[in-house]
Automatic annotation (TrEMBL):
The chain crosses the membrane at residues 57-79, 86-108, 134-152. Keywords: Membrane, Transmembrane, Transmembrane helix. This is Uncharacterized protein.
């Protein structure tokens, strides 16, 4: 199991590092974000989630990089059978479940299925999810959360705990 998470978190660190570098050093992306922030601010309540994400994009990107690095360190520690790594891995996986469920709830809360007439003029740069994609994404995310919950349960079991020092 440790090797699987080393590979996955290694890719995750590489992707998060690429996102952080793109956010910092790619001028067209910065211009698009600035333009979208201005559009979202002008739209008011209809774009509040988008505005929140864009206002905190740098922190979200850096926290993604930080969590990916923590998972990589914990996965390497799991391979070496360190108990601190098992505990850190359990905590990080638990936080991943909370983040995923919170993201689903926010998406469903802000999905533009029956937008009021005041928001009819709202034309975001990026469209919101459609009902089939939202349903598929929700089911897939809940299945991944169940898999992560199984990994946490397995890491908390007595036979696995006995393997760590």
């Amino acid at each position: 199991m440790a090797w699987i998470f080393i590979v996955i978190s290694g890719f995750s660190v590489a992707i998060a590092l690429g996102q952080a570098l793109a956010l910092l050093f790619w001028p067209p992306l910065v211009e698009v974000i600035d333009q979208y922030q201005a559009t979202a601010a002008a739209q008011g309540e209809a774009a509040s989630l988008s505005a929140f994400v864009l206002d905190n994009l740098a922190w979200m990107t850096l926290s993604n990089l930080f969590v990916s690095m923590l998972v990589l360190i914990a996965a390497i520690g799991l391979l070496k059978r360190f108990n601190w790594a098992r505990l850190m891995f359990i905590v990080v996986l638990g936080l991943m479940i909370l983040w995923a469920v919170g993201s689903i709830l926010m998406l469903w809360q802000t999905a533009p299925f029956d937008a009021p007439a005041t928001a009819a003029a709202y034309q975001p740069v990026f469209r919101g999810p459609s009902m089939p994609s939202l349903l598929f994404g929700t089911v897939f995310t809940l299945l991944v959360c169940a898999l992560i919950g199984w990994v946490i349960r397995r890491l908390c079991s007595a036979p696995v705990r006995a393997e760590f020092h």
